Amino acid sequence: MNQMTHPAPPALFSIRDLRLSFADRAHKPLFGPAPRVEVLKGLSLDIPEGRITGIVGESGSGKSTFGRILVRLLAPESGQVLFDGKDIGALDEAALRPLRRDLQMIFQDPMSSLNPRHRVWRIIAQPMKRYGRGGDRAAAITALEKVGLSGQFADRYPHELSGGQRQRVGIARAIALEPRFILADEIVSGLDVSSQAQVLSLLADLARDMGLTLAFISHDLSVIRHLCDTVVVLHHGEIVDQGPVEDVFEHPRSAITKSLLSAIPRPEMDESWWDDMSEPA
Amino acid sequence: MTMTTAHAHTLDIINLNIALPRGQRLLRNVSLQLEPGEVRALVGESGAGKSMIGKAVLGILPHRIKRTEGEILLEGAHLNVMTPATRRNTVAKMSALIPQDPLTALNPVRKIGPQITDPLTRIHGWSHQRALARARELLDRVHIRAPDRVMHSYPHELSGGMRQRILIAAAFAPSPRLIVADEPTTALDVTVQKQILRLIRELQRETGTAVLFVTHDMGVVAKISQKVTVLFAGRVIEDAATRTVFENPAHPYTQALIAATPTPNVSAEPFQPVPAALITELHRETLAADALYAQRGRR
Amino acid sequence: MADVSTNSPRLILTDTNFRLWLPLFWIGLIAAAALFAPLIAPQDPLAQDLMMERLPPFFMEGSAPGYWLGTDSLGRDVLSRIIYGARIALFVSLIAATTTGIFGSALGLIAGYYGGWADRVISRLVDIWMAFPPVLFAVLLVAVMGTGLGSVIAAIALIDWTRFARVIRAETMVQARMDYVDSARIGGARRAATLVSEILPNVMPSIIALLMLEMGIAVIVEAILSFVNLSISSDDPTWGSMIAEGRGAIHFAWWVLLFPLIALFMTVLSFSTLGEGLKQHFDPVLK
After folding, report:
1. How far apart are CA C193 and CA B93, in angstroms?
2. Chains that touch B (3 or more CB pairs under 8 A)
3. Which residue, A147, A281, B290, C112, could crosslink C169 as a Cys pair with Cβ 3.0–4.6 Å?
């Protein structure tokens, strides 16, 4: 699943000093604007083409927000977001629409990411229609087969599928457009261990076969280790570690990465796991 | 409260069968024992029935579950032959629950303090002072700074990790004999999970409480438990000491679950999905067990 | 994977019986009566015959054949008048409820989805509008516009749209936060198209439930207006006017009041439960 690269591949995304803050309405005074909470505090990184980049952090690290900026569900406040050399940060909806075909996403919650009132084939085919890339039932079935689901799933409704199957439909929908980039936002977090492994190996195979660039958001370092080529560690809106996966995992530079790694309970007997003192939050 | 002969076990589950009204079984002949002060992990994938066991013991099964067979003994008391009121009373006095979701487990319109002290005064008959003192003591014990301020706060003012620690404090406050921990760390960050696991481990050693720890994560099982019960489709697949299970797993399904758990070890094998053939075989065994059960005319 | 709604079929059937099939049966009956009134009404609803006045219903002594539910003090057949009254009740409720439903839901969808100043304007409008006492408002409107079915329909439509706007706005806001809406955006959908093709189907069960409820309310409002003689001005029978007339005769001809009252009650009850029944029937399967 990992590919050791030799010459560094070109960067599909080039991000410089990305910042975003939200208004904290919960603490809004009676008169005056709500105080702003900085979610992304100046991120700078490259996402190499054709590789799987992991974005890891705990809740509140800003990883999901960052991912949504990559696919322009959110707009950055300041900073540069270059996609294939073009700054997509400031584009409006009309200018973005033709680009959206190349910026696809797979969502975390398989229950809410598929419209419960649409049949599976329609869910997959609709984006294809919008971009003039076919989008009939046959095309949807082709996509389903690519993710290991037989044609009989085409006429079903999402509630008739298991969590793992729904996630695979989500993957089918994303790859049907043959995009250049896919954001996978915690796509296995709600799945059983065995479904998890299936979905991840499916994703890795597809990425390799189709030459996709993938950004994989997760809080689970173990999953990142097995799937990703490079990893970016976020903490409170800042990058605290980044690099090839082996590097970061074997020689973590930041204390955050170290504490994340040491907190993982491995399925083996090891009393020393309890030994380090982690301060209470 | 009916006491039979003094039992060595805190919890005894004997041939527990739980079925839906149509007869479809959710738990199939589950038996296990819990020694005093022991942590037993109930592990399996979703639908394996691990939560159901805890709920059956505490008497909080969903209403649609119509048929329950088998025996449950809590410190020797036969829960299944008691009247509902006696059973509720017994269970309330001797056990507690640490739930999965700290957000919905706390009443959003009541302050934290009463939510901890109320069971102590109402169920255990403590005086208000004693309950308050114990609440403060435990909040301190779970590393909550400014316990008085927290006791006067509402749940939504606190973080998820804090809420889970409050629930742990509340569960351990009366030093119950048994705690059912229903996936208490599933929704938490990994560093918070470690703190919570540490807390549970320390507190249960101090109070001598036995813990039934429900989880789907084999890593957590390895760290927190002394004994483990592996479940599939409501059946016990393996039941052994944790050390044995990890050093020498007997059943291929257990091995498969361990192999499917991702680890960050750079040199380790990539994790593998549970082989489909194994699942098919397990389903076949389940159907065979059901046929046998039906034949015995227990329907 | 099997859907999980079939755990206790017997229980669900009973619930569905009361909430779906019985109301549907009654409303079907009423609708048939309304449609085929000239064919099934045993007598002419307007025919007065003072020789046949105040005859009791068929199960009592002194009744006349062909006048199943008796006659009123002008000799008019109660059953036939109820059947013809169903026409007006259903006509008014259908048109009024649909008009107000479409208008209110549209505003609710826009307010919930677009937010911002559209939401603020619509919500303020709803707040102000709801401050008027509804029935009083209806009476005033009809008094101003003149009596007649058109006025009655307009009155109901103008008053009750706020119910739809509020509920549908809330539902829309919930759906708008769902990932499948974001997914449509990622898939290149335009904003307005997303509202119609993604959100509307998910909000439809609530719209239909409210529509049924609204039809029941419309029947009642029409009955109230005809009770106070503010509905249609002709001799055409309405349940409300029958009840008004029946009040005077209650001691010696109670059937003149009771049967239209039962018809009214059953119809409104059926609409109310049908709304919930339809929603329940279609929703759990899809959740």
Report:
1. 58
2. A, C
3. C112
